[in-house]
Amino acid sequence: MPAPIDGRPAAMELTAEILLFLAGAGFIAGIIDAMAGGGGMITLPALLASGFPPLAAVGTNKLQSTIGTGGAAYAFARGGHMDMRRYWPPVAAAFAGSALGAIAVQRVSPAFLAALIPILLVAISLYFLLSPPASEADRHSRLGIFGLSLLIGAVGFYDGFFGPGTGTFYTTIFLTLGGLGLLRATAQTKAANFASNVSGLAVMIGGGHVVWIAGLVMAAANFIGAQIGSHLAMRFGGRLIRPLLILMSLALTAKMVMDPKNPIHLYLFGA
């Protein structure tokens, strides 16, 4: 595969085997992402393993996840679990934050985030492991819409900057601070995730960091998987979503920590 020039994907030779591999990754990620978030930890490593330069992997991943989360958001909205009249400000904040993050990732090294994200994910996992089972009923919100929007916007920035685990962050904020029940928190997550994906994708397209054939193949598979995952989440609710939130948080943490370039890996295991 030709080397990238200035961080942009060169002409990439995509074989049928690579496309089939990426389609499988997109399908599995769509199911997981619709229920608990974190599908990017499957698709992004799959793209990198297929020889994509980092920025091309991020941009292409954004294309497939945009279509996948769009399908999941539509399924939740059609099921009556989404309240855009009340929660449009956090969704708008996710859109704006992701655009800024996608601009930043093309100019700043993401290394400083590599040490922070695993710590946050461990904290999220501990919360879900130690807290009482989340109710499907809404509770009193700990934050107003403005505070909620600021936090969702910050996660949107991370989504545009890097991405994997974004759905888990969104769901946790809507659940623990927004006062939503688990199913409605998952539904609002899809709306915010779709918004941040759309804006991040637009910036990546402008920067020339999207490999369209691979992204569209993955997107088609992701869309199918997202439909299956959305219906599973609506049918089984917290019984299925809660364990997946814990699993995806811990799995993403392990994936990041085991990266030899991660500062935490270097601290624990040496160069």
UniProtKB/TrEMBL annotation:
GO terms for cellular component: plasma membrane. The chain crosses the membrane at residues 18-36, 87-105, 111-130, 142-161, 167-186, 198-220, 240-258. It is found in: Cell membrane. It holds the Pfam family TauE. It is a multi-pass membrane protein. The keyword Transport applies. InterPro entries: TM_pro_TauE-like, TSUP. This is Probable membrane transporter protein.
